[in-house]
Amino acid sequence: MELRQLECFVAVAEELHFRKASERLGLSSSALSDRITALETELGAPLLFRTTRQVSLTQAGAELLRDAKKILSDVETSVASVRHMSATDLRTLRISGVDEAISMLLPQALARFRARHLNVHAQILEISGSDFHAQQLASYHTDIAFIRTPSQEDFVTSRLLYSQSVVVVTSENHPLATRHHLGPADLLDEPIVGYPKHARPILHEMLWQGFRALGRQPNIVCEVIDKSTLLQFVLHGLGIALAPAWVQTIAPRGLSFVPFDHSQNGIDLYVAYRKTGNSALIAEFVDAVTAVASQNARENENSG
Question: Is 224 helix (H, G, I), strand (E, B) or coil?
Fold first, then answer.
């Protein structure tokens, strides 16, 4: 069985029309028909029902279509990965990750790294969700990913950079703004600006777990994904919110940040990369990221 045979079958199965499929593939209809027939003969099963007016899939054809599309997709991903790794003159780093890393850590790491590698080009993918970024890394769509939990992928490893504390964000004139620390019990009667679980699972679960322990549900008045939006909502009195401590660096005036006491208070940040097949460029960049994270941690300790 050849990949070209699978490409021909997928084209016919998706178009359900030999002429349209042949035009899509740049083959004659007769050549396309011969390849499908050869594939059916090799598999020992009919894949298509053919009449003079209609083409449809047999049950075996429907099963093969699902598998063939995955096979072709995997091959395409592998080819793209090989071409990317061999393009040493391009020297491109594909980086994805959660917002804290992209906005706070990555600029420092890139500045340090490009001081030694001026020709390196960085492609940045900014989408929320650690699971998504880990999948992009495992499928060779990115080279480096910043994630919140250690990767469970077999071919991916991750390195803990630091743990970020969590704060309760309030307007500066809110009664809770002068407290030295706050726990779930202090938030029971407060309107809260929350996060959807799929986008910010750690903060979402931290809030709900604290309330479940008290036998209550949080009063969520709205949910947002972007932390800049969340800060504006709190500033305008819509509610209070949980957020990682780093948001203080992007916060507008008029907000207060009170440490949040909870048994799971803390949000980790990891840098993840593939275990094998990496260039020296990637390994050096991971070292640069680690060095910047360590330096920032020392400075934060000294300032505290």
Answer: coil
pLDDT per residue as tens digits for the range 158-187: 999 998 889 999 999 999 999 999 999 999
Question: Residue 68: which domain range?
Answer: 3-85
Tally of domains in the chain: 3
Based on the fold, state whether residues 144 and 185 are members of the same structural domain: no
pTM confidence score = 0.64
CA dist., res. 283 & res. 232, Å (int): 39
Closest among 70, 92, 97 to 81, alpha carbons compared: 92
Tokens for 251, please give them.
Answer: 């916060």
Under the phi-then-psi rule, with left for phi > 0, alpha for psi from -120 to 50, and beta for the rest, what region is 239? left
Residues 91 and 79 in one domain: no
For residue 76, what is the domain's CATH number? 1.10.10.10
CA distance 277 to 137: 12
Question: Are 16 and 148 found together in one domain?
Answer: no
Give strand pairing partners of 36: none
